[in-house]
Amino acid sequence: MIAAQINQRFPPPQFTETGHQLPHLTAPPPRLGALDWLDMGVLLACLALATWLVLRRRQRRELMLLGLFSLLYFGFWRNGCVCAIGSIQNITQALFDSSYALPLTVLVFGVLPLAFALVVGRVFCAAVCPHGAFQDLMLLKPVTLPVWLEHGLRLLAYVYLGLAVVFAATGGGYIICRFDPFVQIFRLTGSLTMILTGVIFLLMSIFIGRPYCRFLCPYGVLLGLAGSVSRWRARITPDKCTLCRRCQNECPFNAINKATPRTLQIDPTPEDKRRLVIRCALLPTVIVAGLWLGGLSGDSLAKAHHTVALAERIHLEDAGAVTGATDASNGFRAEGTPPEKLFAEAHALVHRYVLAGRLCGAWVGLIVGLKLIVLAWRPRRPEFETDAVRCVACARCFEHCPQEHKRRQQKAEINGVLAS
Amino acid sequence: MKRRAFFNGLARVAALFGLGGLAGSLARRAQAGHTVWQIDPWKCTWCGKCATECVLELSAVKCVQFYDICGYCDFCTGYFEPQPNKLNTGAENQLCPTGAIIRKFIEDPYYEYSINEPLCVGCGKCVKGCTLFGNGSFHLQIRHDRCLNCNECSIAKACPVQAISRVPADKPYRFKTLEGKK
Amino acid sequence: MHSDADKKVSRRGFLNAGLVAAGGAAGWLAGCDQAQPPAPTNRQPLGKRFTYDVSEYEKVEPGQLLFAAAGQIPTGLQAASCLAVGADDALYVGGDQVIKIFEKDGRPRSALALPEPPQALALDKDRVLVAFKDHFAIFDGAGQTLLKGEALGPRAHLTAIAATGEVLFVADAGNREVVRFDAAGKVLGRFGKLGSKDGNPGFVVPSPYFHLMIGSDGLLWVANPGRHQIQAHTLEGRFELGWGQPAMCVEGFCGCCNPSFFARLPDDRFITSERGLVRIKVYDAKGKFLGLVAGHSQLAQNDQNLPVYRVACDSAGRVLALDPITGVIRIFVPKADEPQKTPAQQK
Amino acid sequence: MQEHRKVLLRQVSFAVMLAAALFSVAAGGLLAWVESQGKVAALVNAPEIAKLHEQLRKQPKDEALKQQIRALDHQLRHDTFRRLNLSHGAARALLFGGLVLFLLGAHGYLVFRPRPAPQHHPRPAHHDEEMHMRQTTALAVVAMLAIIVAFVALLTRHPAQLPAPPAPAPAAGGGQTAAALPPFPTPEEIQKNWPSFRGPDGSGVAKGASLPLSFDAKTGANVRWKTPIPLPGMSSPIIWGGSVFLTGADESSNCVYRFDADTGQLLWSALLKVPGGARPAPAKVADDTSLAAPTAVSDGRRVYALFPNGEIAAFDFAGKQVWARNIGPLENNYGFAASLALHQDRLLIQIDRGVVEDNLSKLVALDAVTGKDLWQKPRPVAGSWSSPILITVEGKPQLLTSAAPLLCAYNPLDGAELWRVNCLESDVAPSPIFAAGMIIAVAPNTSIFGVKPGDTKITWKLENNVPDATSPVSDGVNFYIVDSEGMVMCADLQTGQTKWQHEIDDRFYASPTLVGDKLLLVSRKGHAYMLKPGDKFEQIGKGELGEECNASPAPLGSRLYVRCKDHLFCVEAKESK
Predict the structure, then answer these.
(1) Which of B18, C261, D402, D550 lies in the 20 to 30 Å Cα band around B124?
(2) Within a domain: residue A4?
């Protein structure tokens, strides 16, 4: 087969009369590799700047300007690729497929925001992520969603993350990229459905703060988990909370936890304890159920993989269950690989999918179980504080804190004194 | 509260350590130079999906002419309809539906064919004609002045024979070579 | 507003809503039919004018088939490249780095090892003439080298070889000319290059298929694929005549460059092999189209990797066609001579 | 003054907003229009140009037509790229308009929105509001999980359909695999069983078998067992080892059953399921053909069953489907009825349909191990309902088929035609038999022929008492037929001379069977007549099944298995137990 093609190559004609020279085939180069380093540099600078703005400057307006820059640079200029959200998949693939060459840029985009989140919370979301900035800049008239709805919908993001990892680990494709609502708008081209989805998300963002970040973003899940153990993060008040409750309704993202009224700062009641015990006992059950259900879906998920889909098609064609052939089955037959090999590969893949499906199901089970346990807890919060997982450090609450006003006044005075 | 802060710190340190380890182990394998998408012309079956699946309205995939293996035929099966009315550049004879191939007389009986890229939609019709009958000097390639280098190439996803994969950016094209398939 | 809304939420109501939704989804699931097989994908996502379609010309009328398939011989070669028939109707198949010799019924007889992959092969009495990429060599029946021709330079790409008595010809597709050698392997001359003013129309060779052979009429027949002709020359290299028309339809030679190979039957009819539209056809000695040995649908397995059949004929009038991709020799016999299959018909 | 400027500002900003809105609507409209018109593909595929090209093919010399094509082609290409640019421009304009609209709207909203009244923060309620909220949230999480699970279940209903994976090595205790499949049984093994329609050689002769001279299903006399058959059908039982296999079908399912030969217990019932795809529509069949007319065949390793809707499958003896496929359509006048034949892992199917000119008839061979096509042979015959039989002539196997107009033999290995006799006519349902060097073929209601294999002419012809549905049977000297109206006839095998005829007041669909030294006729009413084969008519016994019977009986050893309408009967002399 190969020989027949080798034989095709032989010297081109000589143009004895005109002496015509063969033109060279043009090969426009891809984007300069050095620009990758620029991207990484800009990312680091933006993260550092965002950290400074959130923790030190505590200025919403400046943070918004940084967000606008990120939107223009990472979004419209860089066409939304490379992006930290999608990098989850590349990193997963690199972990499971040793032949995959992970670009350094993607690794840096995946790891750096997480590292920052572990130390200073989700400053990446605040103003570096173009997706977040886009939605945040659209937010005009926030509607507060009930807390239960917030938690319920947020479960979607965990499932989305699980599925994205399953598909990336098994070679089934990058679903985060495929179903990204904004990247098509950044590129000003793409499938009509996805552009419309993006527009709907943007229109929703006028009223509902950052719908994609809160309810779908798989990277937000990781950042939230990292943020929950962060050393420093956005604090509503620069000083002691006076329990004035002014910040309470200002957060559009349900990310401020109310202080517990003094009368309810009590030890857990027997009912609380009983509930906690039941929920703890529920945890393994939910995980095992997830494991089981996830494994059941593996067979179907496997069809996302080209090899499995092709093997199925070839099998059905051979069995006479379908008529005609697809481009893929034609191509496969032209290649001459024995179908048994394909089937063996497909079986191995299905096995991997079942395994991955189980892990994904267990992950969702674990999250639900843990959520139920945490919700069984009786909170004891002496003051209003940002939620460790959900706060995206947008700096809105600062503007309403009387302590913050006091701080700014003092600072202005000091500056005035220094200036004079 | 103190205890909680301690556990938080512990978790943070562990997470940072883990993240560092992950990044370190992957960085050893990671490439500093980036990669780009490209079509393997030996696998390509000219199905036409390159023209329709690209996120760009006018696909980043174009036909390229690799002159070194072109036969410079008068009756070019990549340029002319299978049964042309006459071997001239009249629109009724041309294979390319968008008229993106340029035919130039060199000397008897040789003609040179080149691609007018802005007009090419990447449908692969001429590639099939050239490869079936001729030397296969026309082939489809992703042109990197147009390609957005999406994280997941939507053409690669739709390609029936998985002919599109990432290649190192310093060798961004996969032209057929004079020596043939290796 | 916030806390008011919260209070209105009834646990039971919410749970009920959730269960109803889940139940509805489960019901939908149960109500759905069995799995439908995936529909074949559209082969022409952009429509007819974007599709290269020659299926019209692939059709063959059954009446035009003058030969019938009569078995095949797998050669086992990875890269089969050439085929010739010996005096005793033995089949010589070149490929990889070997020439395999088969009896006419397909039983392997022997093999000759070669120093490099052969490009073309011919037999002159019991001598085996082999063309390599840039030179030729002559072996005896035992594989001993009798003569090694000189190398013809880096552009050389030999595709055919033939000899009679004292003269030997090779077709050089790289230089687009025919080279004449004497019995000692010395170059006597070259002819047929475009613009060389040697009285030849000039060979147009767009692809590395450039075949020649010496006919029983004492003429050197050379395929001129770019002009879609088979041309006769004297053994001195003077152009005599040519026949053949470019056309996709069955009477002519299709595509940019055909015929790729040809052979002659004992009764001097021509057997031609084409690529693109894979077909093996029969012409009479004057070039009049007679019919087909086999058409595209019989010879091509798929659309993407088309074989270019090497053809040869034996003294019994059988046509042998070597598929270089699979390395299988397919045998075709004239329909009239087809062995009587049923005893009923014999009576 | 301040107020005045504010009003002015508001008016200007409102006017600009209005303009931006109109602009966006226009740009959006343009974009929608361009999208709806279709771009590259739609234009280039314009029907006008296709028509002109078609015209040029007819008038290749028409220069004006060429000019017209060139002009139109240029126009279309021009339009193609203009529209492409237009849509890009419109998209950008829409983005710009939307941005202006949003910015002004946002500004207007922020500047002119009514100042919020001083916030009133309600004092926290006294009851445990937070804990209540948390439990509602927990419920919400659970409900969400339920919804997600339901959706995942919905989206993952269609698992990938792949061939069964190769079982692990035998050491791992794997099941029966293709590699581990025992070799095809020897002719001796086949002779010891009743593996196909009318026995090992399809002639309805069980030499060593015995049968009690009387039995009665009502009293149970000499009836070993009787077992209900789940689904109806007219196929006959086949026997391998200690098992009896049957097929049955209704509109919705095709089934294969295995019964224990000793007890009659239904060991398993296997539902045929072709992977993927909807089940082919049930075949249209006449009432006296049934949806399970073809008899199954077994090689002792598997049992193969074909149904008139085109589905065919192989099951192992554990009832597991090994392969299944659809070889349809098999549709013919009364419904497909030919039983399967099996020769050296080749499953042979005679598919005769329509009239000769339809060119629909063929002989198909499948690989019994995998179910894949081995070869197909077109047959210039009309539709038939007879079954092919395997005979051995001069030590070589032949597959004998009968259908109007040909009695034709093929090489079962590759489908090559060996010989044919042009003698049959009308709707051939009786199958041929081969005994003592003579083939008996039946042209229903017209003639019975004696033919020697390999001949091109018939040896003799007999024109009375010709059956229309049942097949003949022969003891090597004479042959016997019974037609559906009850006329029994005996004639000389070599000459076709009628020896005797006798009318029984009964109706017959089951073919006569030779069980040891008895000629057995089972009537549609369920009566069994036992005759003595020989030169004169002599009834020696009678049995009662008490149930309608259309399938040919299957004798083996001391037992006789008969499929009646609802039950499978096993007849065996009590004393022989």
Answers:
(1) C261
(2) no
Among residues D102, D86, D81, D85, which one has the least CA distance to residue D24? D102
Q: Examine residue A158 and state whether it is found in any structural domain, yes or no.
A: yes
Residue A378 makes CB contacts below 8 A (sequence gap 6+) with: A266, A268, A269, A272, D131
Q: How far is D48 from chain B (nearest CA, A)?
A: 13
Helix axes D2-37, D63-112, angle to 10 degrees: 150
Q: Which helix (H) or strand (E) holds D512?
A: none
Cα separation, C135 vs C112, whole angstroms: 18
| ipTM rounded to 2 decimals | 0.78
Q: How confident is the model at residue C27 (pLDDT cuts 50, 70, 90)?
A: low
Within a 10 A sphere around the Cβ of D358, how many other Cβ atoms? Answer: 10
Contacts of C290 (CB under 8 A, 6+ apart): C66, C269, C281, C282, C283, C284
Distance, first Cα to last Cα, chain A: 87
Q: Confidence band (pLDDT; 50, 70, 90) for A216?
A: very high
How far CA B94 is from CA of A43, B76, B131, D491, in Å, comes to 50, 10, 17, 77
By C-alpha distance, the chain D residue nearest A245 is D121
Tell whether the torsion through CA atoms of B40, B43, B44 and B49 is positive or negative. Answer: negative
Distance CA C66, CA B73 (A): 32
Residues A123 and A223 in one domain: yes
Distances, alpha carbon D119 to alpha carbons A245, A247, A374, A378, in Å: 10, 11, 32, 29
DSSP state of C247: -
Indicate if the pLDDT at residue A84 is higher than 90: yes
B107 to chain D, closest Cα gap in Å: 26
D174 vs A354, D27, D184, D303, D367, CA distance in Å? 21, 67, 21, 20, 23
* Chains contacting B (3 or more CB pairs within 8 Å): A, C, D
Q: Considering only alpha carbons, which residue of chain D is nearest residue A152? A: D141
Q: Where are the alpha helices (DSSP H) in A320-399?
A: 327-335, 339-376
Measured between alpha carbons, how far is D139 from D136 in angstroms, rounded to an integer?
5
Give pLDDT tens digits for D245-275: 999 998 888 999 999 888 888 888 888 888 8
DSSP D444-484: TTTEEEEE-TT-SS-SEEE-SS--SSPPPEE-SSEEEEE-T
Separation in Å, CA C90 to CA A335, C101, D149: 32, 7, 71
Q: Please state the length of chain C.
A: 347
Amino acid letter, residue D511: S
**Residue A142 sits in the same domain as residue A84:** yes
Asked if B83 and C44 come within 8 Å (Cβ–Cβ), the reply is no
State how far Cα D366 lies from the chain centre: 14
Q: Which domain holds residue A256?
A: 41-261+385-415
pLDDT in tens, D332-388: 888 888 999 998 888 999 999 888 888 888 999 998 888 888 888 889 898 898 999
Asked if D505 contacts D486 with a C-beta cutoff of 8 angstroms, the reply is yes
pLDDT in tens, C251-267: 999 988 889 999 999 99
Decide if A10 is inside a domain: no
Total beta-carbon pairs less than 8 A apart between chain C and chain D: 93
Two tokens at A17?
């009369």
pLDDT given at position D116: 60
Confidence of residue A247 (pLDDT cuts 50, 70, 90): confident
The chain B residue lying nearest D53, using CA atoms, is: B92
Kindly state the average pLDDT of the residues D59-81: 88
Using the Cβ of C199 and the Cβ atoms of chain D, whether some distance falls under 8 Å is answered with: no
Report helix, strand and coil shares of chain C as percent, to nearest 5. Answer: 15, 35, 50
Burial of A98: CB neighbours in 10 Å, binned 0-12, 13-18, 19+: exposed
- 8 Å CB contact of D81 and B119: yes
Indicate whether A188 and A329 sit together in one domain: no
- Annotate C125-184 with three-state secondary structure: CCEEEEECCCCEEEECCCCCEEEECCCCCCCCCEEEEEEECCEEEEEECCCCEEEEECCC
